[in-house]
Predict the structure.
Amino acid sequence: MATTSELADRYLMQTGRRLPVTFVRGRGCVVYDDAGREYLDLVAGIAVNLLGHAHPDVVAAVSKQAGELIHTSNLYFTQPQVELAQRLVELSFPSRVFFCNSGAEANEAAIKLARKWGAKNRDGAFEIITTTGSFHGRTLATVTAGGQHKYSDPFKPLPGGFVHVRYNDFDAIESATTQRTVAVMLEPVMGEIGIIPAAPGYLQRVREWCDEKNLLLILDEVQTGLGRTGRWFAHQHAGITPDVMTLAKGLGGGIPIGACLANPRADVFEPGDHGSTFGGNPLACAAASTVLHVIERDALVGHAAEMGELLHSSIQDLGAKEVRGLGLMQAFEFEEAKAKPFQQSCLEAGLIVNAVDDHTVRLVPPLILTATEIERAHGVLAKVAR
Ligand SMILES: Cc1ncc(COP(=O)(O)O)c(C=O)c1O
C-alpha cells in the first residue's frame, strides 16, 4: 500500500518540501503522528494555533456553529461576522473590517484600498513602499510587495507600483517617497525572513512621515497580531496606530480567516469595490470570536510576554550567533549552514521547530505554552545543538 508521502508525491502539486511526518491529532502544544509518536510543537502551524491544538472552547464553538449555519455568502448579514468585527475594532483602533480567508487576501485588500485612496485623495498616487525581505503572501501582488526575488521572479511580469527599501532604514523610506507614493507597508516584526523586529523608533518615525506626507501606513500584523508579541498587536509596543492593519494566521484558531482593518481616513471601499465568497463566514467568525475571548479570559497576551522572555533566555546557550525576537516570536541564527539538519534532528527527538533558511530557526509556539514545556523544549534543543 502506498504511504501518505507517496500519495502526496503522486497527487499533490509539489509547491513546497514537506518534512517526513504525517500528523493525525493534537492537544494543547502537543501533536501526534500516524505512528502515535508525540511531538512538542513550537511552530503551531506557522504561528496559527494560538490556543494550541483541539482547544475545547474552539472545538465547542465550531461544532455549535457548524450545527447551526456554516456559510451564507456576504449577500446577507450574519451575527458572528458583525460580533467579530466589533470585538476586533474594540481591541485595536477605531476602524471598520473587511473579512477574507488568508493573510495574502487581507494584504490584497489593503493594497486595493490604498490604490483607491490614492486615486481619491492623492492625485492618483499608487506606489507602495515596502521592504526587501518582507513577506506579505503568495498572490501576484503580495509576492511583488514582499520583495523576495525567489518568490516573485518565476512569475514575471509582476504588477507595478511597489518600491522596495531596506527594513529598519527610515532614511530609505524618506528618499523613496515621491508624488506617486500612496502608502508604506511594513511588518512590525519581519516574520518569514527569520524574526527581525523593528528597531526602536523606526515605526514611530514612519508614522510621523506618513502623517507629514499624507501617506497611509499599512501594517501587516498577519504573523505578529493577536498576542503573539506580548501585546494584542505589535504596533502597540511602539505606541502608534496604523491606518490599515491586516490580520490572519492565529485569528481563527486554525480555521482560515483574514481581516483588513481600516481607520475612517483610509476606509474608502464602497459597495461593489471588493468581496470574497467565503470571507467572514459564520463558522470562521465563531471560531475567531472564541479565540479572542479565550485569549482575554485566560490573560494570554501577558502570558505570551512572560513566556517569550523565558523562551528567549532559554535559547541563549545553543551556540547561535544571534538570538532575537519579541514575545513568543523568537529565532536563533547559526554561523554555520546547519538550520535544516537541526530542524530534522529536533523532529526526530520529538520537537517541532522551523528552519526558515540554512542558518535560522524560528519558534512561534502556541500562546498557551508553559514554563515546563519551555524547559522540555530546551532539553531537546540543547542536546541537538551539542
Ligand atoms: C506577515 C505575513 N503576511 C502575510 C502572510 C501570508 O499569509 P497567508 O499564508 O495566510 O496568505 C504571512 C504568512 O506567512 C505572513 O507571515
Observations:
- The pocket of pyridoxal-5'-phosphate is lined by residues 46, 102-104, 107, 135-137, 187, 191-192, 220, 222-223, 248 (CB under 6 Å).
- The mean pLDDT is 98.
